[in-house]
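COMPLEX REQUEST
Ligand: cytidine-5'-monophosphate
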Amino acid sequence: MRWKEKLIIALDVSDAQKALDIVERLSDYTAVFKVGFELFTTAGPKIVEEIHKKGKEVFLDLKFHDIPNTVSKAAAAAAKMGVYMFNVHTSGGFEMMKRCRDSVSGICAKDNIRMPKIIGVTVLTSLNNEALKGEVGIQHSLRNHVKHLASLAVKAGLDGVVASPHEISIIKQHCGKDFLVVTPGIRPSWTPPDDQQRTATPKEALKKGADYIVMGRGILQQEDPIKALELISLEILTA
Ligand code: C5P
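STATUS: Structure written out below.
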């Protein structure tokens, strides 16, 4: 698989036109664009339709986290939109993830829709060990907590998890090599970490076995995003 097939570009912008301009401009560099809270809240489901019209796939990053009934209905709605991938918080618990998975397979079978990949968010890449313990109140280590949440996602039938590049090997060891790991917190060597705590370069993340790398500011906030993508490509392809 070429590295560009593993790249997901985060459309973290505030309006539909800006997002569609980016899709158009960077279309040769990825097949999947991520629609998160900011864009979905301003542009609504229509943005997903517009991206599809341009022949591109959508990772709907709305991180559902609610009671099982609510999440399973939101998940069915996401599946009906034809998204390639969407996510839920694993900390919503086993029952929430399981009901989500069941409702999506039900609706996909009934309406003959392609099954989206359902991904569980483990510990946000903006948190570190101290914040997880001191603020969120989790007493065991971040790595163990990610491992625990990833195992729960496997049991509930999810396709993979979102985690930092630092936890790829422990997840693959524990959950199997086919269990997908989607990694944000990706920063080329020449960009600042911003609010991300557990970061790695695109090359490091891919080398550790990431199935997908999600990149926003490391591309979109560069003076010339295409030049940034070419530099990243060069960095990845040189041994
Ligand atoms: O700009 P940057 O590359 O840090 O953007 C990362 C993207 O990945 C953001 O859209 C953020 O919402 C998303 N994300 C994340 N951590 C997660 C899940 C999604 O940073 N655990």
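REMARKS: The chain has one domain: 3-237. The radius of gyration is 17 Å.
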